[in-house]
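Sample intake sheet
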Amino acid sequence: MTTLTRSSTGIDGLDVILRGGLPVNRLYLLEGRPGSGKTTLALQYLLEGVRLGERCLYVTLSETADELSDVAASHGWSLDGIDLFELAAAEAVLGDGRHQSVLHPWEMELDGTIQLIQAEVEKVKPTRVVFDSLSELRLLAQEPLRYRRQVLALKQFFAPRKVTVLLVDDLAGETGERDAHLHSLCHGVISLERFTLDFGSARRRMQIQKLRGVNFVAGYHDMALVTGGLEIYPRLVASDHHTPFGGEPVPSGVEELDRLLYGGPLRGTSTLLTGPAGSGKTNVTLQYVAAALKRGERCCVFEFDERIGTLLTRSKALGNDLQEFVDSGLLELRQVDPADISPGEFAWSVRKAVEERDCRILVLDSLNGYIASMPQEKQVLLQLHEVLSYLNQKGVTTFLVNPQHGLIGNMTTGTIDVSYIADAIVLFRFFESRGRIRKAISVIKNRGGGHEDTIRELRIDTQGIRLSEPLERFRGVLTGTPEFEGGSDRLLEERSA
């Protein structure tokens, strides 16, 4: 691909997708239905130019200066430094240097409008121009041929002037059809979409339809419109992020627990902890986290189900006070609202935790919450697979907590089977012995090496986690209703505080 000078868009995620920004001195189309975020993106692009000391011009046919100021104010921005050329459908007075004139598009010929715009460009001599929007120009032209000729004339006018132009186009009407001829005229096309789920907030996404002569990250990318502008989350491509690392075991600090995986899960692997609710999955995971924190490793927990406060209280009651590590910044606890996050935003949060905060242990609690956050998303399993592959490439040890449906009897893993994705699987079960409900733990898979094929009793109390010696004479463990037929000499009893 040709090496070209790029202009930053002011949106970190979009610059990542564009491999550094938009190539300069080109004509680009920004298209989308009303409400998809086009004006916000256009303003961010110009404000970034102002920040870099460039001259920027906003030509508006569809919105007034007051409306644009309101949009900017809602994000905490000021339009100072942007030259605004307004052609609005309302009467206004000539402003200062930025508010050049007010015209009535429907009362004048298209050629006259184009000439006024060109005169303003010659006067301001900007390096960045936003033209908002082409739908007004289309109405003035009245026929497709004349409209396309005028767009071509605009392209030819800007070509020798070293200007990067963003043409904004509304995909209005029921069909919202894209103009293929307009696509062919532009150097690149950015499409924005907004859609509503059956439950939860509206979702937004974008894609680069084309970008001539340069490389970019293709496909759909989730985005969010928040206070401060658009946030765009590049689609995760795990193969682009390999980092050399050692594959040593990650110990838990509990000798018997480490024996299950012959020292612990390896760096750069994912471990699935699966079993019924209340069987100890999260507590065992937090034991690995606590041990890593004591070694000085940064950890991140994405909590979909349990409240952060409850998690901290529970961990402290088991002898692992995590609050001090939260205060020091070594531990990051993220409360995730399943109804308000997209797969792309989650993947971007994971990337920031790893690349900006050097997270070495990452916990996803739980998979049910993760899947619930995207009930209408397609290929959810592939998205999860890409996230785990990325973490593996970065040498991060990942723990996936997977509550199974049902407490006893025949249990299922949920709507999708994630067991083949994980490198290691730790199985939790309840069993009954002499009138008491007890917990059992065993490892049924470990791609990274050997593991015990035994079953141990798991006991969790105020002094931490204990595992018994391997238990024999079990029957029906994998059915979900194991029966222990051995003696009580190997079982764990309560210990005094």
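Comment: Residues 167 and 349 are 31 Å apart (CA to CA). Confidence is low (pLDDT under 50) at residues 89-108.
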